[in-house]
Amino acid sequence: MMSDVRVACIQINAGASVDDNLRRADLLIREAAAGGAIFICTPEYFSGFERAGDKALPAHFPWASHPVVAHFSALAQALQCELLLGSVGVTSPDGRMRNRSVLLGRDGQCRAYYDKLHLFDVDLGGGNLIQESATIEPGEQAVVAEADAMRLGMSVCYDLRFPRLYRQLAQAGAQVLTVPAAFTRRTGEAHWHILLRSRAIENSCFVLAAAQCGKVTGGGENYGHSLIVSPWGDILAEAGTEEGVIVADLDLSLVERCRQRIPVLVHERSFSGPE
Asked: What is the pLDDT of residues 55-64, one digit of tens each?
């Protein structure tokens, strides 16, 4: 594996028009690749998202003929870079959808995918009720994927609040945790930076968190502030609240150095629960 790798996160405000979202994401990915990034992440539901009341309504298609995956498969080949499609909606047999994060190799082939495990069913107060499970079917399997330069632990948005998932990903060999998201502005202002830096520090992993920004069609607002965080918890790059690209160079040897300094992964012990 390479030691140093240039990565990028794109930040986008995805609306209801898939064609328009793909055009803007395509331009941002090309900008990141022109800046030398060989691994580029997009946010959750970057190809299309809207809300109807408390329901999440991402753009979705059958997995076997998914036009968004096909589009970016061709782009990955053309740019000779790896793409993490933060998440796309995939039609599910039960009538709902899967919230699927997809890793595409330089050859355009799908190298791995992960279906979001934890669904955002919350009441934020003030009439802000969100029931992701009404339209989204949860996944069942944690995933560590082999990218060309690094081992990825895959997750999506609300997963961020469940640290046991990330500990298992790190123990399975992940060096980089991917957290594509569409965090709400309210929860983002309170918790986004703290949670991402915590997941990086407690697992001695880099964290790549490409986020949506701006108003949501149908109501709500995304926080933005895409982040790239080091295993020591340093913020290497941060976006604001507008569409754009952030880039950072990852020294992957830092993962092992941090794990040697504070070896929590080997010190962790099993224990009995409280009675």
From this structure: 888 999 999 9
Backbone φ, ψ for residue 39 (5° rounding): -135, 120
Contacts 24+ apart (CB under 8 A), 223-226: 223/183, 223/184, 223/185, 223/187, 223/188, 223/189, 223/192, 224/11, 224/188, 225/188, 225/192, 225/193, 226/9, 226/10, 226/11, 226/43
Both tokens assigned to 27: 């331009």
Tens-place pLDDT, residues 107-147: 999 999 999 999 988 877 766 677 888 899 999 999 999 99
* Rounded Cα distance, 85 and 130, in Å: 23
Give the active site residues: 44, 116, 157
Upper half-sphere CA count for residue 254 (Cβ side, 13 Å): 19
Which domains does the chain possess? Answer: 4-264 (3.60.110.10)
Q: Is 0.85 surpassed by the pTM of this model?
A: yes
The residue length of the chain stands at: 275
Q: How far apart are CA 234 and CA 218, in angstroms?
A: 35
- For residue 13, give both structure tokens: 């405000």
CA neighbor of 160 nearest in space, from 74, 223, 91: 223
